[in-house]
Amino acid sequence: MPSLFVLATPENRPVVEVAERDADVSVHRSGPYFVLASAEGFSIDRRATGCRHAVWYSCVAGLSGFRIEGWDKDSLRLAVR
How far does the chain reach from its first CA to its final CA, in angstroms? Predict the structure, then answer.
């Protein structure tokens, strides 16, 4: 299943919490990462996370099966490859 990897740090936890609110996204831990998996693309609203820009633009540790469709000051949008 396509996945987004986010380093498991306290600063990144709000990103994961917002993604968990999406019924189509499953979240689990794998080593030092949170793995956000979904069969379809999804988006995360930065304002909902409360993350500052420095954290926001460094939260993605890796992708598997997704591509970043858009990533700006307002949202991160993922699409299935």
Answer: 11
